[in-house]
Amino acid sequence: MDLDLNELAKVSHLFEALDAAGRKEFLKLSHRKRVKAGEVIFREGDAGGEFYVIANGQVRVTADSLEGEKEIAKLGHGQFFGEMAVLNGDKRNATCTAVTDADLVAFPSAAVEKILAEYPAAREALHRVGVLRSEDTMQKLME
């Protein structure tokens, strides 16, 4: 399961914000993770040590609401998740479960911090997506 760096830059806003050297360095700090359909990648409330990019497969994002579990999103190739807990040191605000067998690229928080310190535009891209997702999550939980 190899991720092409240029392909990654096209499908992921985060990697778009890095130059070629930054993308290469960031991927070097990552590791691969294969999950089976139905496998929980992390649960709402867990500590956030890594964030993930989907190389292939599909991931379902759910959060607890007053009526029970609600689907927030379905994510696929090139999309990332788990970034807010890594960026802010917060607990996970959603549960992510593999819908299909999936290949993920996992980025430990130390790697994220190292790259974001060198590339402020990448931090800004992650933050923007996080803010939009937080607003979207609140909206969906209130529906």
Q: What is the overall silhouette?
A: globular
Q: Please, how many helices?
A: 6
Q: What is the CATH fold-level name? A: Jelly Rolls
Average pLDDT confidence is 81
Terminal-residue CA separation? 38 Å
| Beta-strand content estimate | 25-35%
Major sheet summary line: 4 strands, antiparallel
Biggest β-sheet: strands ordered side by side in the sheet: 1-8-3-6
CATH architecture assignment name:
Sandwich
Task: Give a concise summary.
With 143 residues, this protein is α+β, with helices and mostly antiparallel strands.
Question: Which descriptors apply to this entry?
Answer:
143 residues, alpha+beta, Jelly Rolls, four-stranded antiparallel β-sheet, 6 helices, 8 strands, globular
